[in-house]
Structure to design on (164 residues):
């Protein structure tokens, strides 16, 4: 019987409705021009339908982005299942996180890509040459601030990608 009383006491200490109450403004404050807290603004937008929850694709890309370091070794096996625009997004995430290198860009490269931004990355000549062989329809590529890319790989790029 003592255990049941302990559970009841523990449950009473929990404030299970704190988030709900914080997101439930009164009717008068719902249309008030002033806001009491920044958190209430996001709740108000949600209640009024001005904000949508993130899509499943966005959530999945967020998980991939957070765990990119761990999946780089398996990227060639994983990326086969992704459509080209998702591969491009993963490459952009890697570039922004300063993780874009040959190991990442080569398995992600897709034949349908027409633009590519690898600026400021660690992609080397061999990586750029492999991308050039795969992405023959590239029309624009940003290789600025890529210190490991030389003129020889750029000439191979121009040779393979006639639309540049």
């Amino acid at each position: 019987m003592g255990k049941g009383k302990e559970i009841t006491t523990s449950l009473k200490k929990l404030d299970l409705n704190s988030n709900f109450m914080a997101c439930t403004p009164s009717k008068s404050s719902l249309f008030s021009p002033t806001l009491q807290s920044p958190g209430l603004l996001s709740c108000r937008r949600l209640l009024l339908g001005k904000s949508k929850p993130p899509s499943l694709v966005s959530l999945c890309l967020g998980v991939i982005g957070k765990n990119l370091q761990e999946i780089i070794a398996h990227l060639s096996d994983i990326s086969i299942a992704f459509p080209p625009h998702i591969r491009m997004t993963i490459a952009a995430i890697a570039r922004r996180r300063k993780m874009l290198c040959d190991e990442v860009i080569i398995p992600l490269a897709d034949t349908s890509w027409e633009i590519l931004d690898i600026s400021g990355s660690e992609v080397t000549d061999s990586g750029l040459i492999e991308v050039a062989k795969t992405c023959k329809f590239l029309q624009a590529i940003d290789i600025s601030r890529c210190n490991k890319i030389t003129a020889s790989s750029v000439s191979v790029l121009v040779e393979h990608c006639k639309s540049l």
In short: Confidence is low (pLDDT under 50) at residues 14-38. The chain is about 55% helix and 5% strand. The longest helix spans residues 84-96. The radius of gyration is 25 Å.
